[in-house]
Amino acid sequence: MKESWVTMFLPNDEYKERQLLYFIAEAFVLFIGFLGVAVLLNRFLGIFSTEFSYILLGVIAILSLYVWIRYILSGMEYANVVEKSEYKIELKKTIVSTSKFAVLFAGVGTVLKVTKIVEYSWMDLIGISTCAYVLLLVFQLSSFRLSLKKNREL
């Protein structure tokens, strides 16, 4: 935990540090939830201006991406992968789970298009789904390689 800038705000006691980190994580999840509710209220009730909705969505995206990228770069996602056989098994699992995400993403996009909640072309749906799949696969494989490197160092 000493590799983060947050440590300067945490107590030296290990138990207190862990508890405080739990509280911070809970607050983060609640904050994201409240922002999501505000976006939905604005969508259906028009409480805020459209620009404000974009700002809220931007904040949600930035906070979520920060946590996700820090997790990937930490190299702790695949803690059990050290040998070649484990590498191949986890690689297949990673590709399958990423593919499932892509199918789910495209399915939700199709439902949104068919129900006319969101207006976009089929090419937009295919392009966005493909980009989401490729980006997630690249991030997952990067995390996989960083974890493997870190595990071999240990």
Q: Characterize the largest beta sheet: strand count, sense, and whether it forms a barrel.
A: none
Task: Give the total of beta strands.
Answer: 0
Beta-strand portion reads under 5%
- Rg is 20 Å
In helices, the fraction of residues equals over 70%
The run of helices and strands is: HHHH
Shape: flat
Structural class by sheet pairing and helices: mainly alpha
Distance between the termini: 16 Å
Task: Flag low-confidence runs.
Answer: none
Q: What average pLDDT do the residues reach? A: 84
Count the DSSP helices: 4
Task: Tell me what you see in this structure.
With 154 residues, the chain is mostly helical. 78% of the residues lie in helices and 0% in strands. α1 runs antiparallel to α2, α2 runs parallel beside α4 and α3 packs antiparallel against α4. The chain is flat and about 50 Å long.
